[in-house]
Fold this protein.
Amino acid sequence: MQKLVIPRKTVYRLSLYYRALQRLRVGKTATVSSAALAKAAGVKPTQLRKDLTYFGQFGTRGLGYSVESLSKQLTDVLGTTRLQPVILVGAGNLGAALLRYHGFAKEGFEVVAAFDVKTSKTRAQQLGVKLLPMTELGGFVREQHIKMAILTVPGTVAQEVANALVEAGVLAILNFAPIILQVPDRVVVNNVDLAIELENLSYFIQ
Amino acid sequence: MQKLVIPRKTVYRLSLYYRALQRLRVGKTATVSSAALAKAAGVKPTQLRKDLTYFGQFGTRGLGYSVESLSKQLTDVLGTTRLQPVILVGAGNLGAALLRYHGFAKEGFEVVAAFDVKTSKTRAQQLGVKLLPMTELGGFVREQHIKMAILTVPGTVAQEVANALVEAGVLAILNFAPIILQVPDRVVVNNVDLAIELENLSYFIQ
DNA sequence: CTGTGTGAAGGCTTTCACAGCC
DNA sequence: GGCTGTGAAAGCCTTCACACAG
């Protein structure tokens, strides 16, 4: 597997393609051309074809791609074949909000526990997930072999918590705190900053 | 103003720089080098300097940048000098979650109203914001001259709602629905898809 | 004849190297 | 001496053009 040569942007687009394919699948479409799929994913047809060739040949010339088969290939490449356990750290405003929003679950991810400095039975019931104190973070991650974490703590403690996560063995962090986390090279961080997205939009409407 | 020549990625990074500067400001730092600021923003020093030169010269050679002054310049360029009114469409799980999370407010954006197909007094009170039926969307946008919208409706109706927003005069959409919106060139869309971010991470931990 | 696969060209961003100013 | 500003070079990604398969 020469996954190291696949550009990050390509990997990101694979998810877009997968999403678009799922919509076709429920629409009972059996086969799709690069032109049609590219449009649904918001990219150019040549880019879609180029992206796919990074890890194999999946289409039939003159016909297109099998929706079913390409879907499967993509889940294999993306590593979403099995349900991936995830923990959420920081059950404050945003963290609690994300827990209530169950958008992750249906896409192959399960939030198996949440962590916060302050825990209580009633709060745990509100959130509908196991709520543990920060002191148990390291042990839990190690025992359950957790590899992915959603980080929704305040920016002031984000780096410190990230350090604890990394030390316990977490390899991927979805970071909502508005700071750039310093982590070892083996750890991947994706940043989501809603305020920055809005700020970015505001530039374009002047 | 030759804003058209500034790369999109540069504009995005300006927000990162601004964020980093705010942290320095509360730390009473008066002046900062490109090396220090770049590290805080997670980029290379040369890139930071190149980004800034797209719209002027702000530093002092041998010294660095004035935190105060550069902050102001950035808000000018980004267009966040004035408080920008925003509406949220779709007060379901995710929409409600974002309303409860007040991360936007402190960054210069105010959610002035939320829209949903079903409205009720108690629901509006829970959300802490004016909750209006979808039928009033167009009128409200036109009267209040709303330019920015956060879209948190189900994917199945997202395009339809986006059309209504665009027709009423909205110029920028922060889209959380998992589809690619088709909009006129004058309208800017930023997509945020939490499931895709997780999926993307899962590729890197295989 | 339709639609994929792909080397080559083109375009865009990042990085380098160093001149210029404090 | 330290640090910014910037043309030039390098690197990366996208798009083109067309060969090739069904």
About this structure: The first strand of chain A starts at residue 31 and ends at 32. Chain A touches chain B through 61 residues (CB under 8 Å).
